[in-house]
Amino acid sequence: MFDFLAYTFMQRAFMAGIIAAILCPTIGVYLVLRRLSMIGEMFAHVSLAGVALGIFTGIYPLVSALGLSLLAAALLEALRRTYRMFADLAIAIMISAGISLAVILISLSRAFNADLFSYLFGSVIAITANDLKLVAAVGAVVLALVILLRKELFYIAFDEEAARAAGIPVDLVNSLFVAATALTIAVSMRVVGILLVSSLITVPVAAALQVGRSFRQTVFLSYVYALVAVLSGLFISYHADLAPGGSIVMVCIILFVVSIGIRKVAGIGGRHRVEAEFAGCVEG
Fold first, then answer.
1. pLDDT band at 116 (very low <50, low <70, confident <90, very high)
2. Domains contained in the chain, CATH given
3. What is the reported pTM?
């Protein structure tokens, strides 16, 4: 049953998948708590434009996606500061810009081919050794950044104005966090696919919030859900000859539904518990 792990391409797929399963909830828990889940969708569209740019210009698509995503992160923060009362408008503008640029570049390069489809829906055989090295390097940078800023991100996630009053450099932290989100989306798309990568960021966290009794437990459970989804999704996609993105996200959705059932039966979990823990930390 597990003889497929003898293949090098499957080993690379599973290693890249494990990295993505750790990165996505790390970023996702703060996005979900701040009600900024659509940022993931925005960077997915921008990453598609980056891949199309790479195919059009001959640049390595993952590198061009990373570069364009970082540029989009800077532009997003500039727009969010300009429209501070309408942060969702800035996200909507960037989504429109990303998808329109992607369509134009795909049309110009005539890029409707198997390579583009592997970026759109993920592929267990398309992850190269260079992809894995880049995913691992970017993953290490993102994890180090989030660990370094974890206290500031925790505070900002629940009360941005109080964080400003407490002297936290909110704008700088937000800029670094948005850049980390852009990098996470760009590298995770190789496993899950551009069209579904934002789901791996939000759905495991949403499922964990249903049953988590504290912030730490919610984070831990989101890692567990993401790992289960990625590993079982890759297993299913190999044996059923399916695109891994759909399999991974469908497992996430099943886990979310199960978590809702557990919450209703046991009466546990919920965002209010996480907020109560935060309030206790602040008062302490």
1. confident
2. 3-283 (1.10.3470.10)
3. 0.84
